[in-house]
Design brief:
mainly beta; 7-stranded mixed sheet; 4-stranded antiparallel sheet
Length: 120
Amino acid sequence: QVHVVESGGGLVQAGGSLRLSCAASGSFISINVMAWYRQAPGKQREWVAGITGGGSTNYADSVKGRFTIFRDNAKKTVYLQMNSVKPEDTAVYYCSVDIHVTDWRRDNYWGQGTQVTVSS
């Protein structure tokens, strides 16, 4: 069984910084793409950033230059460093992890979400 748990959300002032973490645990072969999504009240969930197993990264235009995604493969953890945050970054942030569970099975797992609130 695979578990994905986020942490690090909270309240931050505009212009400040916050780091989110997402750790995968359980029995599996390897982790492929790890990504962050977010969902603001009344809006659809949107992709924020992703990182491949080889370390290639990509970002939504709205966070490019302010957010950084990185991973620690030994700890099976992905991070989202959020700098220069804006009130519009307020949302529940979700971690998505693509995992090779067995040689014949590849699944996507989501965390429970962590709230980020940016005050103006």
